[in-house]
Amino acid sequence: MSPVIDAHFHLWQVGRHGFEWPTPDLTAIYRDFAAADLRAAAGEALHGAVAVQSQPSDADTQWLLHLAESEPLILGVVGWTDMSAPDAAARVAELARHPKLKGLRPMLQGLPEDDWILRPDVAPALSAMQAAGLVFDALVFTRHLSAIDTVAQRYPDLRIVIDHAAKPPIATTQTQPEDTRDWTETMTVIARHPNVVCKLSGLFTEMRPDQPFDEAAPYVAHLLQTFGPQRLLFGSDWPVVRLKGEWRVWQDWLADQLNPLTPPERQAIFFTNAKRIYDLQGVP
């Protein structure tokens, strides 16, 4: 198989580096995960990966950056900082000086305000990210996308990546079709912004435990129709994907969904787009 860049994976150590999640009830992922575990899960096809913060903690980000200095598998890091802090702009600029820091993710899905990212005290951080060429990873649900639409308009040079396709309501696709319609319509709108791209990641964990994988297929098809192959990135969301399947199960299923595309289009999704969007240096 052609080489793959995984644009979204996590590492954590239980009880360390600001650890808050996963909780003990999530037995499949409640343990330490290291880069060697990802290598074992993915196999030889994995060329490299982007480590994404999993804790709203500066300690987590510093730990990931420290790992990236000596771990060749980690091509880049998407970190966290308090974007509403009075010194947020200076902090963003400081983080951007690290060669492996490629983006920031404020974990919007867990904040009490759906439009938190539009608060005036957050604006200096967004401006600093745009100036530094950092990527804004948006961890959101459908209800947050109107705010992301506004951010995309206000900061046209800010690269915005929608994580996990905004967590579509796959689990209720039959019982609450209106939720799927809302997601479909809102993603169509957000895709009109050329500075917004989307990760093909996290879909399996938005499904019921007994739900067939193929019920995610219409969502992938819609993302291909709206964003196109040049604005989609493969991400495993490993090890969270283990709640539903393994790295290779998700990658193989997605590759099958993308079979109708041309080889260059598939290569874009599985490799080239991550290299370009995250400005991954030294990747041949």
From TrEMBL:
<protein>
    <submittedName>
        <fullName>Amidohydrolase family protein</fullName>
    </submittedName>
</protein>
<feature type="domain" description="Amidohydrolase-related">
    <location>
        <begin position="5"/>
        <end position="280"/>
    </location>
</feature>
<dbReference type="InterPro" id="IPR006680">
    <property type="entry name" value="Amidohydro-rel"/>
</dbReference>
<dbReference type="InterPro" id="IPR032466">
    <property type="entry name" value="Metal_Hydrolase"/>
</dbReference>
<dbReference type="InterPro" id="IPR052350">
    <property type="entry name" value="Metallo-dep_Lactonases"/>
</dbReference>
<dbReference type="Pfam" id="PF04909">
    <property type="entry name" value="Amidohydro_2"/>
</dbReference>
<comment type="similarity">
    <text>Belongs to the metallo-dependent hydrolases superfamily.</text>
</comment>
